[in-house]
Every structure is written in C-alpha cells, then in structure tokens.
Amino acid sequence: MKIKGYSFLLILGFLILPLHSQKLKRTEKKIITSVEKNNASAIDFLEKVVNINSGTLNLGGVKKVGEAFRNELDGLGFKTTWVSMPDQMNRAGHLFAETSGDRGKKILLIGHLDTVFEEDSPFQTFKMVNDSSAHAPGGNDMKGGNVIVLYALKALKENGLLEDAHIIVAFTGDEESTGKPLEISRKDLIEAAERCDIALGFETSTGFNYATVARRGASGWELKTTGQRAHSSGVFSERTGAGAIFEMSRILNAFYDQVRGEEYLTFNPGIVLGGTFIDYDIKTGKGDAFGKSNVVSQTAMVKGGLRFMSEEQKERARNKMREIVANHLPQTKAEISFIDSYPAMELTEGNQKLLQLLNQVSLDLGQGEVLAYDPGKRGAADTSFVAEYVDCLDGLGAMGSGAHTPEETVNLNTIEALTKRTAILIYRLINQ
Question: Are 374 and 419 in contact (CB under 8 A)?
C-alpha cells in the first residue's frame, strides 16, 4: 500500500520516531483535572447506557440510549437533533449535536448507539468481572467510546473551552447493521463531514498505543445458481447436467483458488442454502431448504462479504468473481450481485498528520507513543463514509475484549486516560 511513492510500512517507520515531549499548558492541566474529577461519573453513566438494550433492530432501545446522550449534550450547550429514518428501513435514526463557533479546526466526532445484541440476547447487563473490567454488551463496541467523547467534552465545557468551537457529534443508530439505501442512512453523516475539517472515530481501540489511519471497506455479494430438477440417476448426463449445488461448489472453489491472495483483500461466504426449494429471510438472516438426496438440486444461494483497501481493489475482485460465475457447468445458470456497504478509509497524508498530533498528545501526557495499527486487522466503520471528505483518525474508543460475543468486556481502568487523551487532542485542534 503506497501514498505518494511511500509504502505504508515506511510511513509507519517514520511515525514511530520519537517526538520531543512538551509540557502540558496550564489550561490543559485544568482539563486533566476535570477528567479525573468526573471519571467515576463516566463509569456510572457507561453502566447506565449499557443496561439499556440497543440492538440495531430494537428501535426503541436505540432511541432510549440516544436520549440519554442527548440530555447530557444538551446540558453542555450543544444543539441536538434526532434524525429519524423512513419506516421501511426499520432503523431508529441518529443523534447529532453541534456547537456553532468558528475557532480552529471544525471537528466531527463519530460514534454509534446500537450494538449487535438484540432484545432476545441472553447477554444484557453490565457486570463487574474484577476491579478493572466488566462484562458489558456493547460496552467496548462502542458505548465506551461514546462515553469518552461525552466526558472529554464535559471537561472542555467546565473550563469554558467550547464556546467558540465548531464541533459536531454524530452517534449513528445502525452502525452494526447499516440501513439501506446508504444514500439515506448516511446522508446526514456525510453532510456533517462536508462542513468539517477533521473526523475522529471512537470505535473500539485496538490497543492503548495504537490508532487507525486506514481501514478496509466492506461490501456484500449474493450468488444464485439454478439447475435442472430431475432424478439423481441422471446427474451429469447431457440432459440433466450438474445441478445447482455443484455449480455453486465450482464457483466458490474457483473464488478460493483464483481471487484469494491479494494483500488486504478477503471475501467470505457467510450462509449457503441449496436444494429443490430454498427460502431466506434477509431481515433475520435465517433460511431453510427442502430437497432430497435422489433429486438433482434445482436452486442454491450464498451470501457473503468482501473486504478491500481501495475502490480499485474492490472492482478488481468483483470483476474476477464475475468472470468465474459466467463459466457455467452443463445445464446450469448462475448470477452474482454486489451491494455496497462501507467504503475503504484509505491511507492519506492528512490522516498521518493527525496521528502525529495524537502521538504528541500522548507523549505529553506521559502515556507513550501511539502507532498506526495494521489496517488489514480492522473491520469497517462509519468513519469510512467520511474519509473522502476530511482527514480521519479512528480507533480512539474504549478498550476491552470479545466484542460481538457474549464475553465482551470493557476495560474500565483505561477510560480516564483515553478521555484525557481525547480532551487534549480536541483542545489542540480547536486552537490550531
């Protein structure tokens, strides 16, 4: 991966060179004091919002979590707005909050209110594991990041530092399962980015001393195959051919052999159904199939995902997949379709400069260097939608483990330090 003639690894090598530490300014020390004073309240608030189920499809729960953050942001003097989505999209909407100053950099702070844990999940409540961590559905991904944003802004407000700033907070309600069409569900986020200079994303941290300057995009694909329904005694004959399932198997095997291998490119068939008849519910992700071992399969379907580092890489992969699909087995047909989801957050010089600034903040706080995280190890996130318009940095949120699983934890001991880092970073940006 290169940017203006320099490889990603070379750029990383440049960035890990030590920077000279500076002393915190008097105002910055006051900000730190405010963060420390409010940390217990931040943990309490995190527990409160974690205990409100906000699975993406629990629209009422997402709105309730949004209301909790909205009340706090109202108290900080932000103008808050709930942006509803059309009923047919089955998504709750998004919370936006804004200050209208014009000093320094205009900043977009991105989080999300929803989690992967729906109302029927057995994992529902915040529970301490030990004195430093808690099991918390969505506490790590990403209510903890939202709390870091909120309490960094509280510290700035307490010291009279928000009055002249232009800051937009965007907490989406469907990051874990983005509403379609994207032109509607991400319209307000993109418009907010177009009015800003910088976007900071508070998705799950990949480590205390890492941040994300690039991340892969994600898109979906659906493959359908059909064959001649007939008695299995005739399979492979000129009249009957191979059947839908053999055609599906051919294609998937060819994907594995011919498309796999390019750096940062991955693709995954997530669900497959095949037989005489199949039925799949796109809303629930559940399906069923009917068939018999003595009947040649009539239909098959697979849905999968594709991860990529650039639009060019995405299109190369798609074209290879189309070529493979077009080469049918006897008496079969196949078609593949693609659905755009998250664009890639590509590596840019602006993103690198933001990382340098964050690194300096961390050094000044005595927290050590912050390095660029390997983009191949990160999933997609809302920051990707705005990367085309502004310089971005992501992975600034809470630390923990087991995100998206019933073992998800949030590291409570790092909330205060990460909030300090965020508050000082925002302060320096709005004073540039």
Answer: no
